[in-house]
Structure formats: structure tokens, C-alpha cells
Task: inverse folding
């Protein structure tokens, strides 16, 4: 990591402690692209980090084709599902965290997309039998056992490996995975897990920031 990124990362940490910490792991109302999201304690707050906002801004009818079926894996607050519902015919949003499931259901109602979005508690695909045109996944990037339900958004031992192994069973023919990764993650190692399952990837969107590069990959068999 170069010196500029180190300095910028230290500034972001300082900004978090000075101005944002009171919104972390607490009940708070946030807005993303003018859409309201109520964030419950123990649920990842997408407005405190850069990845979720980048992902939903990248959505369009090429990535989320009109009348498509979508699975939002690890939905958290429900942000991906809510924005995908602009185009999709139906969206299934799942999370292993019961508080995230509650939170996503609230935000689906708050944004009036409850006729399109079905929220379920699920450990990856355990409660999912369907196949989808598009699957969204912003995985936990960092290895290690999570210390809390909230920490599952950041750390995991085998989540991406298990997801990659089951992915093809839940995509229709010519279906696509939209995988959001940061340069903070071991991107090459993660993509290799999908290559081993017969997937190729290209870049759907990318943003170079002062502290990291965020990439939305599109993968298909």
C-alpha cells in the first residue's frame, strides 16, 4: 500500500471515530439516493462504508434486466434488494443474521417494494431452492471467525468457498453473478474460487478511491 493510501486510510479512521461512530451498531435512519433505510443494531450500516452505495449506483437495466429474477445474498439492510426491485420482476433477499432479516423487511416496506421482494433468513442457499437470472453478493472480505452477528458482514472462514460451490445450482442458463469486491480483499484468490467452478468474469463497474479500489465483477459460466 502506497503512502497516500496509508494517510487517507488513517484519515478515514479518524473521521469515523469523530463523526460516524455514533451511527455504527445503533438504531439510525439513513438515506441512500434519497431512499430511506432504517438500520437496526447488529446490522451493517451501508452508508458508513463505500461499497454498497457504489454497487446500487452501478445498477441499471443491463445488469438487472427488466422482469428478471434476482437473489440478494447477504442482504443486510436490504439495500441491494430495494434498488434491484426497480427493474426485477421478483427479488429474494436472504441473510444469516436474524436482525438483518428484520431490518430488510422493514426497509422493503418503507420503500414500498414488498410486492416484489421476499426476505428470508438463510445461511447462504439453505432456504433457497429457486434459480435466478441475477445473484448479488457483497461478501465478507476478511478471513477469521466473526465475533458477532454484525461482524459476519466483515469476517468469515468459509462463506465464499461454500457460496462458489453452490452457485451454479441457483443460476438459470446464462444467469449472472454480480460480485462486489474491494482491493482490500484477496481479489485474485476469491475469483479463483469461481474460476474453479467454471465461471469467467469481467468488470461491470469500478471506482478508484484514495484508499482502495472497488470493483463490481460480472461472472457467468
Result:
Amino acid at each position: 500500500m502506497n503512502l497516500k493510501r496509508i494517510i487517507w486510510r488513517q484519515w478515514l479512521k479518524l473521521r469515523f471515530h469523530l463523526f460516524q461512530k455514533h451511527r455504527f451498531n445503533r438504531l439510525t435512519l439513513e438515506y441512500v439516493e434519497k431512499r430511506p433505510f432504517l438500520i437496526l443494531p447488529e446490522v451493517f450500516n451501508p452508508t458508513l462504508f463505500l461499497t454498497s452505495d457504489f454497487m446500487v449506483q452501478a445498477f441499471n437495466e443491463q445488469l438487472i434486466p427488466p422482469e428478471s429474477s434476482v437473489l440478494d445474498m447477504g442482504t443486510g439492510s436490504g439495500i441491494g434488494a430495494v434498488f434491484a426491485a426497480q427493474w426485477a420482476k421478483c427479488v429474494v433477499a436472504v441473510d444469516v443474521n436474524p436482525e438483518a432479516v428484520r431490518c430488510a423487511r422493514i426497509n422493503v416496506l418503507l420503500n414500498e417494494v414488498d410486492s416484489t421482494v421476499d426476505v428470508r433468513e438463510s445461511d447462504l442457499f439453505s432456504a433457497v431452492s429457486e434459480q435466478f437470472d441475477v445473484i448479488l453478493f457483497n461478501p465478507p472480505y476478511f478471513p477469521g471467525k466473526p465475533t458477532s452477528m454484525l461482524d459476519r458482514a466483515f469476517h468469515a472462514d468459509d462463506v465464499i468457498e461454500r457460496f462458489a460451490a453452490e452457485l451454479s445450482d441457483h443460476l438459470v442458463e446464462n444467469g449472472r453473478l454480480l460480485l462486489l469486491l474491494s482491493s482490500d480483499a484477496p481479489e485474485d484468490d476469491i475469483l479463483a474460487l469461481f474460476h474453479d467452478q467454471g465461471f469467467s468474469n469481467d468488470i461491470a463497474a469500478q471506482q478508484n478511491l484514495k484508499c482502495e479500489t472497488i470493483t463490481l465483477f460480472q461472472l457467468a459460466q
The helical segments are 3-20, 51-58, 79-84, 98-110, 159-166, 187-195. DSSP finds six helices and eleven strands in the chain. The first helix runs from residue 3 to 20.
